[in-house]
Design a protein that fits this description.
Blueprint lengths: L4 H12 L8 H6 L17 H13 L5 H13 L5 H6 L2 H8 L5 H18 L6 H5 L6 H11 L9 H11 L6 H9 L7 H21 L24
The protein binds a DNA duplex (13 and 12 nucleotides) through α3, α4, α7, α9 and α10.
DNA sequence: AGCCAGGCTACCG
DNA sequence: CGGTAGCATGGC
């Protein structure tokens, strides 16, 4: 029988250790080994610049890899564009050039401008989710990434990794975002919001790591920490 | 050399 | 509503 979601979280945490999301470039500069991650430290982000960087990263990473996002963040910084005001003043072609390696660079340049305006309006106040969703270019996953990782609000991020992992673990299910999010969060509602946000932060980071190591697009089930509870165990590679 | 990568909007039936 | 074409680059 399927174990409670919280048991899956415990198994992942035990197997992989604390992951330390969201990656921040300042930390990566201080210690390149860290990759910008900060395991066990839920105090971050601590500044408007860091919150903005997380939002920009959340937009840039839409349907691309984090490695490409880092190139784009470097490009923006070199152009002096890693802040709301400069982004709003810059010619769109300059922004596009800086973020080209991330793909969809025309759409994303516009999204960064739309988000800059929104950020200036709300930060440091955590924006209401519907307000965030009304910004052009920000859908449910990007909104929840910003709310959880930039503003420490307890929203679980459902991304492609999460969908794939849940589908493998539980088989076919309701694929709608809200449904998956509810499945993942309902057993944590007794926690205080601050603590719940920390759990969602770590849990989502665990899902991503699990999905990059074992539960990949092409699965590698040997040694998987979830083998004993996975509906697909034995049917995949 | 085609598939995939931490989605979203617009538009279709 | 639910489903999907288009957006674009780079790595494997």
């Amino acid at each position: 029988m399927t174990p409670p979601i919280s048991d899956i979280f415990s198994s992942l945490l035990k197997a992989h250790g604390s992951r330390g999301w969201w990656p921040l470039r300042e930390l990566r500069r201080q210690d390149p080994q860290s990759g910008g991650y900060h395991p066990g430290d839920f105090s971050l982000p601590v500044s408007a610049a860091q919150r903005f960087e997380i939002g920009v990263g959340a937009i840039l990473t839409q349907n691309t890899t984090w490695k490409q996002v880092e190139v784009c963040l470097d490009g923006l910084e070199r152009a002096g564009l890693l802040a709301p005001e400069p982004l709003l003043l810059a010619p769109v072609q300059v922004i596009e050039k800086a973020i080209r390696p991330g793909g969809y660079f025309r759409q994303k340049a516009r999204k960064l401008c739309e988000y800059s305006r929104f950020f200036r309006q709300w930060d440091p106040e955590p924006p209401p989710r519907p307000e965030l969703l009304s910004v052009w270019g920000i859908g449910e996953e990007t909104a929840d990434s910003i709310l959880l990782y930039a503003y420490k609000q307890p929203f679980f991020v459902v991304d492609a990794y999460t969908r794939r992992l849940l589908e493998r673990l539980f088989g076919e299910a309701d694929p709608r975002y809200a449904s998956l999010q509810e499945k993942l969060t309902k057993s944590f509602l007794h926690l205080e919001p601050v603590r719940r946000a920390q759990v969602f932060n770590e849990f989502h980071a665990q899902v991503v790591h699990q999905s990059k190591t074992f539960c990949r697009s092409r699965p590698l089930c040997r040694g998987c920490p979830l083998e004993s509870v996975c509906a697909s165990a034995g049917r995949l590679v």
